[in-house]
């Protein structure tokens, strides 16, 4: 029921509609370093994280740009690839062994057509994701590297132990050497 409470934070979905959604989910396991989606592939399934950490990133060949991390109780996908059923422009990889549950795009569309509550839930979650992306853009442009680091630590302290620091540094737009100094010297 922890995930149910998480969903209720976005929209007051009934237990019956939540059950309708979760009854449609199927389990899938991934090992550390397994790719869920790669550039050029269409994201056909939306994942609900049960355990593990995943990362989306863009690779230019000489540099990796970390875009997002997912972990329980969040959803996991290349959002625009899944939403519009178009090829992904970037990678989605498991940083740890991961247990996920998934629903296909077509199955989710049927549920959305069947339940206005499920439709509202996903609309509100999409709105929250958009707001989070805007907040991140503001942080990257207006905050010092120390403030970005402290904000990340307050929001996701568990990731400091689970994610290689070079990926967190990339996500925050901080040079890995400066990130190491912050990690060793700044209390949050």
Automatic annotation (TrEMBL):
UniProt xrefs under Gene3D superfamilies: Jelly Rolls
Record-linked InterPro entries: cNMP-bd_dom (IPR000595), cNMP-bd_dom_sf (IPR018490), RmlC-like_jellyroll (IPR014710)
Domain Cyclic nucleotide-binding: start-end pairs: 9-52
Identification of the protein by name: Crp/Fnr family transcriptional regulator
